[in-house]
Design a protein that fits this description.
By secondary structure, the chain is an all-alpha fold. The chain is built from 15 helices and no strands. The chain folds into two domains: about 70 residues, no CATH class; about 160 residues, no CATH class. The longest helix is centred in the C-terminal third of the chain and has 14 residues. About 40% of the residues are buried.
Length: about 240
């Protein structure tokens, strides 16, 4: 236990290191030849893209999300759609959260039936205005699903997030809005990431006794499955959601 505590403290300055320290007992059992690279992470070292790809399935994370946590640019095969205005996946989630469970399942089936159109490469470079602090990381994880970065309604309806103006949520990026446990749990729920994992990444505890959406798991899966849909496809999905009500 003392060794693990020391690992957590050593990794306190790096989000991926904190996550690894949090999950260390189970990761260490299967680390094998990766152990030297993982030890480097635990002491605050940086991760290579190849290590992130191998570590993601060990942690049960989407590889693209782990790239964000590691502070690395997404490679070509992992980028989400962008420039899908006036729609984005958050728009779909707002409507989907109102559906009955069977209607939500039918909506997911429709999304999975749509042909994938990978974003054109090279993509437009992401405009990251702020350093990768905890709040900015949460917003980038939303963008990793093509969810508009300032989507307080989505966080509120699905993950019991604070109901705040868009401008307040936008200030998570520069750290002018404090990342609270309520935010951490809301982001974790919408993203489909275990809240204790996201708490370790952020260095902020998760909320206790939140009022979460009954279909939160289905909604998180829908968000991931819709992350590369085009604007036209998102419009189709919204039409289907409207007919399912």
């Amino acid at each position: 236990m003392a060794m693990l505590t020391a690992m957590v403290e050593a990794a306190s300055g790096a989000a991926l290191g904190r996550l690894l320290a949090h999950r260390w007992p189970e990761v260490a059992a299967t680390a094998g030849a990766l152990r030297p690279e993982l030890d480097t992470l635990l002491t605050g070292g940086a991760a290579s893209p190849s290590l992130v790809r191998r570590l993601a399935p060990m942690l049960g994370w989407h590889t693209a999300d782990l790239f964000v946590v590691a502070g690395l640019d997404l490679p070509q095969d992992l980028v989400p759609a962008s420039g899908t205005e006036p729609w984005h996946v958050g728009t779909v989630l707002e409507d989907a959260a109102k559906l009955a469970p069977q209607s939500l399942r039918r909506l997911r089936e429709f999304v999975r039936s749509l042909p994938e159109h990978p974003p054109a490469w090279p993509p437009v470079p992401p405009r990251h205005s702020y350093p990768l602090g905890p709040g900015e990381m949460m917003l980038r994880l939303l963008r990793n699903r093509n969810i508009g970065p300032y989507s307080p309604k989505v966080l509120y309806r699905i993950g019991d997030g604070p109901m705040v103006p868009y401008a307040t949520m936008a200030m998570l990026g520069p750290g002018r809005t404090r990342l609270t446990p309520q935010y951490v749990t809301a982001f974790a729920t919408v993203l489909g990431i275990p809240d204790d994992d996201l708490a370790a990444v952020a260095g902020v505890a998760a909320a206790t006794d939140p009022r979460l959406h009954r279909d939160r798991v289905e909604l998180a899966r829908l968000a991931w499955e819709a992350r590369r849909l085009t604007s036209e496809q998102l419009s189709e999905v919204l039409d289907v959601a409207c007919r399912q009500r």
